[in-house]
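Exercise 7 asks you to align residues with tokens for two separate proteins.
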Amino acid sequence: MFSNNLTLPEGSEGLPISEDEEIICGEYETYTLARFLFIFVSSWIALFGTSGNLFLLYLFSARNYPNTPPTLYPGVLAILDAIICAMYIFLFGADAAIVFLHIKSLFVLYYIYVIPAFVISRITQLAIPYMLIFATLERFVWLAGD
């Protein structure tokens, strides 16, 4: 019906499955309880970081007074930082939940979005230093203009 083409370590008995069950994943790195708890707590911190950055974006976009510095680049930086925090949850938090809690539906969903999420996180990581430079230049121009 199907071939078991997984490469297993020597001495491994393989996966206990029946003939009508399909293999959807191979061997993976296990998570200790301490590692899972660390990633779980870090994911909650990333969730607070995401919401905090979205709140900053709201503040930057809602408050425009003539005596306040420009907020274009800090707003973009808040968006990028919120994306980084969200990608941490999607990439690391979801992986820890899949492996430690054995959630099959999350496993399937994770492998649908993992590559685009990784690409988005890398693009965001590359864009953040440039936004910091532009925000500094924007602030300098604002201060030098007085």
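Second protein for Exercise 7:
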Amino acid sequence: MIPAVQRLAEFVEAEVAADRLPGAVVGVVHRGREVFFEAFGFRDRARGVAMTTDSLFWVASMSKPITAAAALLLVERGRLALGDPIGAYLPQFAGRSVQPTVLDLLRHTAGMPEGLLGDSPVHELYADAVGDGMTDLTGAEFVDRLSRLPLLHVPGAVWHYGWGVDLVGLIIESLVGTSLGDFLRDEVCGPLGMTDTTFGVPDGHRDRFARPSPPHVLPDLSVARFHSGGAGLVSTAGDYLRFVRMLLAKGEPLLGRKTVEYMLSDQLAPGTDTSRLERPGWNPGHGFGIGLAVRRRVGGVPVPGSVGEVTWPGAGGTTWWADPSEDLGVVVMAHTTADIEPRIQGTRARLPAVAASDLMRHHPACRQRPGTRRRADTGPHTTAWRGQTWFSPPSTYRLAPMTKLLSAEARNATAAATSAGSPTRPMAIEAPAWAVKSA
């Protein structure tokens, strides 16, 4: 086994042996090839059921990059403009003088925070109004309540994790006329061969769902009342590796090369307050792209890595990262509400640099005879879907129509809002009666 990959495997084995992790599935892709894919431990420790590579996991916030890719697909088709105010797609917001753009939703600069991530009065309003979103409200109720809440800050001024990508999922539904799940199945997951990526666990496959060990508890996805583009997907390690492979292949066979380049670029403007993103345990040294964190620098970050490396983990214990400069991607699927991410950092730190060199030395897929030129490999990019073969050679790319993607980000009355107070001052929008606690 490749030394760096072996270290990752040994880490997971040690976590299982110490009963800190019931089980996991780990996959690694390099230069378009799957070079490691293995299951560890138990899918259901209480019943003694071993983990398998086709086990299902709640990927939580790892849903966000997939929903973001779906939004960019609509941008390429000219149906969505990231610079538009969200009221152009969600009428409930149309009457507000200050509106985030769709881009603000995707990069977490909209001013709509998850309520449990702060203790300000505005955070409390969001916590009371929407709860955890998908299990408490329908999509229409979710939009209606958010539309009547004050913004935490001027759109674009501050990075703060929030409900933006859930709203993007509902915008997608409004544009395509189907559920987000159906659109992802037909237009994103289907072409990529991600047949096990769905909202909730399908009937007949519940035995494949990995169970966390007590006292860890996962949300009951069966009671979700709308398709949460921010946190609602269930997937497998193999499926998510296909998504990561698409990003590393510059979008093939799903998105145009320039679209993926844009997705993986830091979208935070100079001067944006990123203090919440820089906190320990979050993503120090990172900016934010379209639905994912983007590494800004090599130094000043807790672990080695490459500028341009992208990631965004899930709250249930799943994580992934991709290093385009090394053409390397890693997916780790586990179910534990304990924070696996800090413990995996030591091994993760060595993987991008060490694994790449070891892969090039030892793995047959990466060897090249002296004096020969590497040919584009077609294998991993070929998927049969709806009677068609979805493949374009890596040297040939569809160019995205970028005119709408790069349209102006003008926001209604932003200047007026800024002059009314500091960028981080909550907007003066009266809270609705149902959102105010009684004494």
